[in-house]
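User: Can you predict the 3D structure for this chain?
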Amino acid sequence: MNNKTRHFFMAALAALTLGATVGVQAAEAVKSIRGTDVDSEAQQPGKYVVEKDHAPSAREYVQQPPLIPHKIDGYSITTNFNKCMDCHSWTRYRETGATKVSITHFKDRDGKELSNISPRRYFCNQCHVPQTDAKPLVENTFKKAEGLR
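Assistant: Here is the predicted structure, written as structure tokens:
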């Protein structure tokens, strides 16, 4: 075995060892940034119930993406199809009673207006999320922005 191959295998072994150590440490205890212990059972996906359909929630801060006031289970959002647009597009929002997509979603990162939704805004649930009955993992001391009180 030449030196180059030996160095490669030594680096790979070190990376595996480090990865296993980090994985074990992460499994031992989850802590919040504030240092509070977090119940790892409370983080399990699928454990919470999505709120039933309701009117849109009030926003808590300026520029907050609106929260999704309904279930989105089974909604398909791919590069070729976006289920959200069945109701929220500018051509359909009136007949469905849904909120129309913001004009800001039709601009590229340089502010140039586009004829369709910007690819960087196309995957709705990157910013917009449905609400669940999950309890906060740590105490929240957030206060609304002055202009929204």
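The helical segments are 3-28, 85-88, 93-96. The beta strands are 30-31, 37-38.
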